Amino acid sequence: MEIDINDAAGRIHTIPILFDEAAASIGQLRIVSIKLDAPCAELKHFSSNVDFERIEAELKRVAYSIAMIDAYQPFWDNFDEIDRQAFVVDGLGRSSCKRKIALGDNCFLHIEVADPLYPTELPSIRISGPEANTRPLEFKVVTNRKLW
């Protein structure tokens, strides 16, 4: 079963809910796993062996996950802009707090947002590639950090 939720920006978030088929065949409703495409680790995936008596608690947890979608709007807005404007080679997906961006000359910019609830705080930044090409870029990052 999947639940589709539209966020404030019109992005569609699909929440797959997997039920235990063996339990269903004997008349029990048991949730095996629920996944959310959110950058928060505790919301990405949770599994349980929930019988019908506990289904209400699990559905409340799903409702909480859906409510968290609104909290991540600024994060997704910022990362959508990066994805549109840059050549992102790794880290795509709504649950990823990382991006690897191709800069040219075999150089890559690696960014990671520490807390997706505060996406405009200075991210972790690393540049990889040939040292002759990365040294000037690293110097620019270090000298311009204060402008963030």
UniProtKB/TrEMBL annotation:
GO terms for cellular component: Fanconi anaemia nuclear complex. One of its GO terms (biological process) is protein monoubiquitination. InterPro entries: Fancl (IPR026848), FANCL_d3 (IPR044037), FANCL_d3_sf (IPR043003). Gene3D superfamilies: RWD domain-like. Residues 74-148 form the FANCL UBC-like domain. GO terms for molecular function: ubiquitin protein ligase activity. CDD domains: DRWD-C_FANCL. This is FANCL UBC-like domain-containing protein. It comes from Rhizoclosmatium globosum.
